[in-house]
Specification:
Acyl-CoA synthetase; six-stranded mixed β-sheet; alpha/beta; Rossmann fold; AMP-dep_synth/lig_dom; Luciferase, domain 3; 31% helix
Length: 518
């Protein structure tokens, strides 16, 4: 005990969160460009001052350790500022899906109960105002893109105290909340710690060959961990993060040309649009691609061809374990080997480890794993088994020790880059007065990988048309989640214990194409 007490003075020395990383970047790379967004260009030193001012705004409005901050807007350099300011005061920051319907936003607002909401007027102002009115009209909302008669982000920053002294934050405490697709018909916010985010950044920096000369096109939404990895990796390396509010082919091409960007997040449907927009080589994209046709594009995470993750593509992960936690560039076969900050175990339902080669649930532990789901005590208790996180995914340990992903225990639909869980769509459809029973499946699509299809058993004496069910879902959730196809049936096949037999529904109604990795 005496020896432990003698070491106590060193405990504060180890406090190092994402806010501390920015402090050092402002010293080490004070005059290097950190963020680009339209006419905005800020060095690391300028970014540090802006974050200090924003943290002062948060602190002045009573935001402290453990309080929540919500972002309801499209991509912006201010998302990174808000994340870093939250880090400085010990708050938890959540970038929500800006495409969510007002009803979905109200669910998030009720669940997350933010002390501050940053919101956007352009394009999505009506939905945000409706959500605010339906939640707490007098709550603390700050408009990031300038709204008449509202608290303005830039005006508040200009008048804020650029105070630099903030209490140390424990590295293992939650910083980022990412709402994941529903695991039980209700989305949950996975909480990632300061330590986890720094590790995610380091892994992206190594795997994607990011350094201080790199420029990253933040062209995907920041509520996707795949986009977040590249953004944080670039921030950690001291490179440039170039933000665009949403995906628009010509704008992306122009940004690539003007800023000579080296990394990006560009999903396949966007690549198709960019190829059409760049016919004849209108834009110079040579910093990212080998030719004007973008012919060397192979996955959404675009990086130099000699990057480790390009030379050995593949991996397994989920938001709850910090994104990609087993990667082919670390060696092995299948999905590859675990990164150095996580341990995997293939176990049975009780968490007992299974022999190599036998399929079971993937369990994970280590500092990269989430701190749990916000406001989900029952789910958190269920997800932890003898100190291991239950992923709800099936896998196996290959003969060489690598990890292979077999598939989700709960079926997931992949449409474009978006994950859609049938349980969430089914929950929405069951609230329709014409639905007696329903099963949502994924059907193959050459462009989007899969489309969402709902197989519905109508209630007696109802004859709502298919479009009615689609519009019902559109009003309750983000548009990409709604079914594109409706098919009616007299009954759904059931298992011996009375549950819908999803495999039989797939076989009978054209399902297939579900994601497989490794």
């Amino acid at each position: 005990m005496k020896q432990h007490a003698a070491l106590a003075p060193y405990l504060p020395v180890h406090a190092y969160g994402l806010g501390d990383l920015l402090y050092e970047q402002a010293r080490s790379r004070h005059d290097m460009i950190a963020v680009i967004d339209g006419d905005h260009r800020f060095t690391y030193e300028q970014l540090d001052e802006r974050v200090n001012r924003l943290a002062g705004v948060l602190r002045a409005r009573g935001v402290g350790k453990g309080d929540r901050v919500l972002w309801l807007g499209q991509n912006s350099f201010r998302v990174l500022e808000a994340l870093l300011a939250s880090a400085r005061v010990g708050a938890i920051f959540c970038p929500a899906n800006w495409r969510a319907a007002p009803a979905e936003l109200n669910v998030i607002l009720d669940d997350f109960d933010p002390a501050i909401v940053f919101w956007q007027e352009a394009e999505i102002g009506d939905a945000n105002r409706a959500a605010r009115k339906g939640w707490k009209p007098e709550s603390n909302w700050i408009c990031h893109d300038g709204c008449a008669g509202e608290d303005s982000y830039e005006e508040l920053l200009a008048s804020a105290d650029p105070e630099t002294e903030f209490a140390p934050v424990e590295t293992s405490t939650p910083l980022l909340a990412i709402y994941t697709a529903a695991f039980s018909g209700r989305p949950g916010a996975a909480l990632l710690s300061h330590e986890s985010l720094i590790i995610i950044a380091w892994l992206a920096m190594q795997g994607q060959s990011i350094d201080e000369k790199s420029g990253y096109l933040v062209s995907g939404p920041m509520f996707h961990v795949g986009v977040l990895m590249g953004t944080l990796g670039t921030f950690l390396a001291g490179g440039r993060n170039a933000f665009v509010p949403r995906v628009e082919a010509n704008q992306l091409l122009q940004m690539m040309q003007d800023e000579k960007l080296t990394h990006a997040f560009v999903p396949q449907p966007t690549v198709v649009q960019m190829r059409e927009a760049n016919a004849g080589g209108k834009y110079d994209v040579s910093s990212l691609f080998c030719d004007a046709e973008l012919s060397d594009w192979s996955m959404p995470m675009v990086m130099p061809r000699d990057a480790p993750a390009m030379k050995s593509m593949g991996g397994y992960g989920q938001t709850e374990i910090g994104g990609l936690a087993a990667v082919a560039w670390m060696g092995g076969t299948g999905a590859g080997r675990p990164v150095p900050f996580v341990a995997f175990k293939i176990g049975d339902e009780q968490g007992n480890e299974l022999p190599r080669g036998e399929a079971g649930e993937i369990f994970a532990r280590g500092p990269i794993v989430m701190c749990g789901y916000w406001n989900r005590p029952e789910e958190n208790a269920r997800r932890v088994v003898n100190g291991w996180h239950r992923t709800n995914d099936l896998g196996k340990r290959l003969p060489d020790g690598s990890i292979a992903f077999v598939g989700p225990k709960t079926t997931m639909i992949k449409t474009g880059i978006e994950n859609v869980y049938p349980a969430e769509v089914e929950s929405a459809l069951r609230s329709h007065p014409g639905v007696a029973d329903v099963c949502v499946i994924g059907v193959p699509d050459p462009k989007w990988d899969q489309n969402v299809k709902a197989v519905i058993v109508r209630k007696p004496d109802t004859d709502f048309p298919a479009e009615h069910f689609i519009e019902h879902c559109r009003a309750l959730m983000a548009s990409y989640k709604k079914p594109k196809i409706i098919e009616f049936t007299e009954s759904l096949p059931k298992t011996p214990v009375g549950f819908v037999d999803r495999a039989a529904v797939d076989a009978g109604f054209g399902g297939g194409g579900y994601p497989k990795v490794g």
